Amino acid sequence: MATLEANKREDLRRSETRKLRTEGYVPAVLYGKKTDSTPVYVPSIAFTKTLRQVGWNGIIDLMVDDGSKHQVMVHDLQQDVIKGHNTHIDFFEVDMTSEMDADVAVNLVGEAPGESEGGVLSHMLYTVSVRALPREIPEQIDVDISELGINDSILVGDLTAGQNFAFSNEAEETIVSVLPPTDEEPETSEDDEEQEPELVDSKGEKEE
User: Fold this and answer.
1) Key word Ribonucleoprotein present in the record (predicted)?
2) 73 and 12 share a domain?
3) What CA–CA distance (Å, rounded) separates 159 from 132?
């Protein structure tokens, strides 16, 4: 299990939060069912390395500078999409003896034959809900699409649950399917568009 050091945040002013970020820290909050909400901050680089090591659903030993130790998961991570750095973290303290629900990423594996036949791959469910003990939550669910032809689908009910976890989604929910190719109308130029006939009177003169 990975370990990450954290410090309590006593000064919650916005200016102090900005200062922490410029100094290489990420403001965060620690909470849980039996844990009071506690503002903390962690080193940005160390957090990134830890998350890369354990994965999104991994367990982290959060060591706070008051001497307390908490087994947490990253419940929410806010990022600055322009500057590309983390701006705030929610650490959720888990009960290692109780099952919990977690969203797990769906990873499509292989190439669907239906695509090479002109079909359109439609990935509809990017995460599935899994119920398990915190240690047993998988990092991702691999879904093999190598036999998926046109009009074929893979539902949640088609997945095989692990030995230590179960899916919480409805079995009828579609994860991925290959849709048939759409018949598009050929583009027409202005010259091809139907033009109204010129009106000619009985004398053979054009009407204005």
Assistant:
1) yes
2) yes
3) 16
